[in-house]
Write a structure and sequence with these properties.
Layout: H1 5-14, H2 17-49, H3 54-101, H4 114-129, H5 131-155, H6 157-204, H7 206-211, H8 215-267, H9 273-285, H10 287-314, E1 335-342, E2 345-352, E3 357-361, H11 365-375, E4 383-388, E5 391-392, H12 398-404, E6 405-408, E7 417-418, H13 419-423, H14 431-436, H15 439-445, E8 451-452, H16 461-475, E9 479-483, H17 491-504, E10 509-513, H18 517-520, E11 525-530, E12 533-538, H19 540-546, H20 548-555
Parallel strand pairs: 3-10, 3-11, 6-9, 9-10
Antiparallel strand pairs: 1-2, 1-4, 4-5, 7-8, 11-12
C-alpha cells in the first residue's frame, strides 16, 4: 500500500486512537465545563442575587466550585494524554522512517541529502505526531460549540439557532483559508530540509573545503540556499498571519451577531438579566473554541504538508527488490560475473574462486564504483548476472546479501564513541583485525578510554582508514569488498596492512579494488578492468612487466 498523505496521517492517529479518544474526551469535558460557567453565573444572578437567597447563593457557588475542580482535572489529564499520543506517534513515525532509510533494498536516499532526511525524521515527524493533539483539540472545540448552542437554545431558541446555523459556514470558510497556508508550509519545509542537508554536507567536508581554499564558495552557496529557505519561511509566516487574522475577524463577526441577538431579546424582555449575562458570557466563550478551530485548521495544514513529505520517503521504491532465492547454509564465497553491463561496465566476465584474494585495477573511478555496487547488490546490473555460489544476487533478499557480502566503501564513516565501540560489532575478539589493519597503533596513540569526536574528526585521515578497515575485517563476512582502504596511509604501514589482510582473510573471499602496488603485490591474482571490460589478468609482478596500461595505472 502506498504511503500517501492520508495514510501517514491515518496511521499517526489510528495508532494512538485510545490515547487520542481519552485526550479528546477529557478536553471535551473541559470545554463543556467552560461553557457551563457563564450559564451557572446567570443562574446565580437569577436565583440568588435577584432574590437575595443566601442558601441559593451558597448552593450555586458550590456548583461553580465543583465545575472549576473538574476543569482543572480534565485539562491536566487531557493535556497529558494528548502529549503522550503526539510524542508516541512521532516516535513511531521516526522508527518507520529509519527502517525505510536503512532498509537493505535502499532507494529512500535517492535524490535526497542526508540532512534533508534528518529534517523529515525530526521536524516533519513531530508535526505529524502533533496532529493527535490537534484532533483532541478539535473534539474539544466542537464540544464547546455544541454545549454553547444547547445552552443558548435553552435560554432562547433564536440564540441557539444563530450558533447552530452560523458555525458550519464559519468552519467551512476556515478550511478554505487554510489551503494557501498548506501550500506555502510545504515549500517552507522543503527549503528548510534542503538547507539542513547542505549544511550537514558542508560541515562534513570542512577539512576538504579548507584544503582547497573553497570556504568562500561554500559560504556563498549556503547563503543562497539559506536565503531561499528564509524567503519560503517568511511567505509561510505571512500566510499564517493572514490566515489567523482572517479567522479572528470571521469569528469576531460571528460572536458580535450572537451578542447582538441576545441584547435585542433582553431589551424586549424575552430573556432575564441572568439569561443576558449567560448569553454574553457564552458569546465571549465562543471566541475560545472558534480560535481553537483556527489553530486546528492551521496545524492540520502543516501536518498534511509534513505527511506528504514523509509519505514520499516511505513510498520510495527500493533500489533492489527481494526475490525467492537463498544462499547455501554455508557460503563458500565463489563469486562470478557473467556479461555484466552497468554504467561504464560493458559485458564483464569474471570468476573469483572461494577464498581467493583478488585485486581489481581500473583507471576509471566510475567503473570501480559500478563494479562494487553490482557486487554488493546496491544496484542490479542492466544486463548480465552476478552470482554467489551459483545463486544470482538479483533473486536473493537484499538483507541476506548484506549478511554474505560486506562492502567496505572508500569513504567509511566512524562514529562518536570509543575506538573499541567503532570496531567491535559484538563480543568477538577484534584484536586480530585491529592488528591486521594497523589500528592497534592508533589505539596506542590515544589516551586510555579516549572518546572519538563526531565522525572521528579527532583522528587523522590515515588513522580513520585503519579503524574503518579493522571494523570491516572484524565483521569477518564470507565475501569482503574493499575499495582503496589505504590511500591516506604511509608506505611502511601500507605494507604491514597488505600482509595483515592476506593473513586475517585466509580462506575467505576478498575482492580488493585498488591501485596500490603494496596491496596488489599481496593478492593471489590481479584483474585489469579497462574500457568497461576485463582486459588482462595475472600476478602483479607479471602485469607490471608486460602490460603498459597496467603499469601506468599502478605506478604513475
Amino acid at each position: 500500500m502506498r504511503d500517501d498523505r492520508g495514510t501517514v496521517l491515518g496511521r499517526a492517529i489510528g495508532g494512538q486512537s485510545r490515547q487520542v479518544l481519552l485526550a479528546g474526551a477529557l478536553a471535551a469535558g473541559h470545554q463543556a465545563g467552560e461553557a457551563l460557567v457563564p450559564v451557572l453565573i446567570g443562574v446565580v444572578i437569577d436565583r440568588a442575587v435577584s432574590t437575595g437567597s443566601s442558601t441559593e447563593l451558597l448552593l450555586w457557588l458550590a456548583a461553580l466550585a465543583a465545575v472549576f475542580a473538574g476543569l482543572s482535572a480534565s485539562f491536566r489529564f487531557g493535556a497529558r494524554a494528548a502529549e503522550r499520543a503526539s510524542q508516541q506517534a512521532g516516535h513511531e513515525i521516526r522508527v518507520r522512517l529509519t527502517r525505510r532509510v536503512l532498509h537493505p533494498g535502499g532507494g529512500a536516499e535517492a535524490d535526497r541529502l542526508s540532512g534533508a532526511l534528518v529534517n523529515i525524521a525530526t521536524g516533519d515527524a513531530r508535526r505529524v505526531g502533533g496532529v493527535n493533539t490537534v484532533v483532541s483539540a478539535g473534539i474539544a472545540a466542537l464540544t464547546g460549540l455544541l454545549v454553547s448552542a444547547v445552552a443558548l437554545l435553552w435560554i432562547s431558541v433564536p440564540l441557539g439557532l444563530v450558533v447552530l446555523l452560523g458555525a458550519p459556514p464559519v468552519l467551512w470558510l476556515g478550511g478554505l483559508l487554510g489551503r494557501p497556508l498548506e501550500r506555502r508550509s510545504a515549500v517552507e519545509q522543503e527549503r528548510a530540509a534542503h538547507a539542513s542537508g547542505l549544511a550537514t554536507d558542508l560541515v562534513a567536508g570542512l577539512r576538504v573545503l579548507k584544503g582547497i581554499g573553497a570556504e568562500s564558495a561554500a559560504v556563498a552557496r549556503y547563503r543562497r540556499t539559506s536565503q531561499e529557505s528564509l524567503a519560503a519561511t517568511l511567505r509561510a509566516s505571512r500566510a499564517q498571519a493572514w490566515h489567523d487574522g482572517a479567522i479572528l475577524a470571521l469569528t469576531g463577526v460571528f460572536i458580535a451577531a450572537v451578542a447582538l441577538v441576545g441584547g435585542r431579546l433582553a431589551a424586549q424582555g424575552e430573556i432575564s438579566v441572568g439569561d443576558l449575562v449567560a448569553a454574553v458570557g457564552l458569546a465571549l466563550f465562543l471566541l475560545a473554541p472558534l480560535q481553537l478551530f483556527a489553530w486546528v485548521n492551521g496545524e492540520f495544514a502543516r501536518g498534511r504538508a509534513s505527511a506528504a513529505r514523509i509519505g514520499e520517503v516511505l513510498s520510495a521504491p527500493p533500489a533492489v527488490a527481494a526475490g525467492p532465492g537463498q544462499f547455501p547454509s554455508v557460503v563458500r564465497g565463489q563469486v562470478a560475473l557473467a556479461g555484466v553491463t552497468h554504467g561504464p561496465l560493458r559485458g564483464v566476465d569474471l570468476d573469483v574462486a572461494p577464498g581467493e584474494l583478488l585485486g581489481v585495477v581500473t583507471p576509471d573511478p566510475a567503473a570501480a564504483t559500478a563494479l562494487l555496487a553490482c557486487l554488493a547488490r546496491e544496484v542490479d546490473p542492466a544486463a548480465g548476472a552476478v552470482t554467489l555460489d551459483g545463486v544470482p544476487l538479483s533473486t536473493v533478499d537484499p538483507a541476506e546479501v548484506r549478511g554474505a557480502i560486506l562492502h567496505a566503501a572508500h569513504h567509511a564513516d566512524l562514529f562518536a564513541g570509543t575506538l573499541a565501540a567503532n570496531v567491535a560489532l559484538d563480543d568477538r575478539d577484534v584484536l586480530p583485525a585491529m592488528s591486521a589493519a594497523a589500528a592497534d597503533e592508533v589505539a596506542l596513540s590515544l589516551p586510555e578510554g579516549a572518546v572519538l569526536t563526531e565522525r572521528a574528526r579527532s583522528l587523522s585521515g590515515g588513522q580513520r582508514q585503519r579503524v574503518a578497515l579493522a571494523r570491516a575485517l572484524a565483521a569477518d563476512p564470507p565475501v569482503l569488498l574493499l575499495h582503496d582502504p589505504t590511500t591516506a596511509v604511509d608506505t611502511v604501514t601500507e605494507a604491514r596492512i597488505a600482509t595483515g589482510i592476506r593473513d586475517v582473510r585466509h580462506g575467505r573471499t576478498t575482492i580488493l579494488v585498488t591501485t596500490s602496488p603494496a596491496l596488489l603485490a599481496a593478492v593471489d591474482r590481479v584483474v585489469l578492468l579497462d574500457d568497461g571490460t576485463v582486459r588482462a589478468q595475472g600476478t602483479h609482478e607479471s602485469l607490471v612487466a608486460t602490460d603498459p596500461g597496467y603499469r601506468k595505472a599502478v605506478l604513475s
